[in-house]
Amino acid sequence: MRVLIVDDExxxxxRLKELLNDIGGYTVVGEAMNGAxxxxxxxxxxxxxxxxxxxxxxxxxxxxxxxxxxxxxxPSVIFTTAYDQHALDAFEVNAVDYLLKPIRKDRxxxxxxxxxxxxxxxxxxxxxxxAEPQARTHxxxxxxxxxxxxxxxDVVYFLADSKYVAVRTRAEEHLIEDSxxxxxxxxxxxxxxxxxxxxxxxxxxxxxxxxxAGTWQVSFKELDTRLDVSRRHTAAVRRWARSRPKGx
Amino acid sequence: xxxxxxxxxxxxxxxxxxxxxxxxxxxxxxSAAARSAEDEGGFLPNFCxxxxxxxxxxxxxxxxxxxxxxxxxxxxxxxxxxxLLLVSVFVQWVALTGTAVLCLARKTLNRLxxxxxxxxxxxxxxxxxxxxxELAIWLLxxxxxxxxxxxxxxxxxxxxxxxxxxxxxxxxxxxxxxxxELRQRVQSEARARMQALQSRIRPHFVFNTLNIIxxxxxxxxxxxxxxxxxxxxxxxxxxxxDENLVPVKxxxxxxxxxxxxxxxxxDSRLQVQWDVGKFPRKAVxxxxxxxxxxxxxxxxxxxNLASGGTVEARLWENADRIHIRVINxxxxxxxxxxxxxxxxxxxxxxxxxxxxxxxxATLETEEREGQFIVNVVLPTRGDE
Lengths: 248, 384
Description:
The complex is a heterodimer of chains A (248) and B (384).
Chain A: E1 2-6, H1 10-23, E2 27-32, H2 35-45, E3 49-53, H3 61-68, E4 76-81, H4 85-94, E5 98-100, H5 105-113, H6 120-128, E6 138-143, E7 146-151, E8 155-160, E9 165-169, E10 173-176, H7 180-187, E11 191-195, E12 198-201, E13 205-210, E14 216-220, E15 226-228, H8 231-243
Helix pairs in contact in A: 2-3, 3-6, 4-6
Chain B: H1 10-40, H2 50-70, H3 80-111, H4 114-142, H5 154-200, H6 203-219, H7 221-239, E1 245-247, H8 248-266, E2 270-276, E3 284-286, H9 290-300, E4 309-318, E5 321-329, H10 347-357, E6 362-368, E7 371-379
Parallel strand pairs in B: 2-4
Antiparallel strand pairs in B: 1-3, 4-5, 5-7, 6-7
Helix pairs in contact in B: 2-3, 3-4, 4-5, 6-7, 6-8, 7-8, 8-9
């Protein structure tokens, strides 16, 4: 079985490697120090199982699991944690594998033999049960069976059509399967709804102008595109524009 | 949780899994509800319980003896024994019906705030006394002991029973309330002590460090040994109840032991830059002042930075004041919904300074250019 070890502490990774070596029959195909790296490596190395710490700087283990579960053939995930009562409760309820640090060899061997796959729903529920629920730091995009992570600060806007949502960054555009309603719920403090089908990053907005046709349009700092503001959202957008800090 | 036999169709397995999940969540909610009922239950004991009723009967009997002793003779009957019997029967009646009333009304009463519950229970018991007294008179009349249901002592009798009942029940209810309040205070003190301990010894730090030590026992037993010694010393300080003032040097020693442990965990991600000025020999500060400041810097700063950073700790003395400044880099603002701010972790220290020095010590925090800065000023000689 191919294992990917994810922990921000070097000695914690060492310990897992040693224990796996003792148990035998497992190959450590790689190591990662945070969630984003874990997602990248998992999609590149195709491990069967991930041993992943929950608390890591940048993207944590729970968010990484959420992205991973979107893969075509996601690996199993066994979480490792020192102490995180809220997550543990959620694990119990959702019957998700976890190991408590200091990690014991017999427990590890046991968990590996019955390692199961998470569902995306489980990952989301656990993530919501945290003491400090957070929004994702990245959006995951599927490219030819691989996962690409788009950091949230790079997103200029989300534009929905009938089936997909387009994620627009300065340089690229990707399609994701999500709904604007969910995205707005999750990132509402950084994004502004300007139309039934458009959610824009407030930090990317250059200005709000009237078009020759008499409708309002949003222009962006780093893109030439303009997006229409729907009549229903005009008031909210103008309110936001007025309260926006000067020079921002 | 047993796995279903392989022959079962998958939908049964799914159903079962779902049922188990619901059961688990229900169980959690139930136990939470039970806990809150114990905590927030009203002050009245459960009058539906046998031994509470028994206690009520004993108390009633003592009251009956008291009333009989105080009563002028020849009101009821010729002998003291017979008096006591009559009074007892009456008082027991009042007491037992009163217990029954409280048993029935308990759920409603416990939902009220304590003072109102006390008032309501008091009125209920008075009403009960009045009803039982009235019934007693009717009974005497029906049995032919008195000629009318409105004898000339009718008003006096009611006044007497109501007064005695008011005094006895008032005392009793007040006693229950006081007992309840005492129990609550003990509970909340225990909880506060537990929280204070947890804020000193953070489980996350403990278990991660133990994991690291387990790893070191193989690769570097010498380091593992030092780590265990450091941890023991640190825990001894954290577990001690004293709020002693200790020399500045001791505080720096303890802080260094703590930092050595964190360094094992965070490796090159944690850099520390000390800048310690000259201190008079008598300079003291409360035990465990420096370590929590550094722990806060690591917990809210370094630990959340993938590439780590430097914690700066500066200590100097000026005009009979000890100055401590701890600076740490902060991770970029995240889209968290309710992150505790770094200064929240300092509340316990703030509280301890207030207990020790009153207004003479200050702890101020500021965020500047991605850095979090804590400034502490303490009187050099402790109390002033």
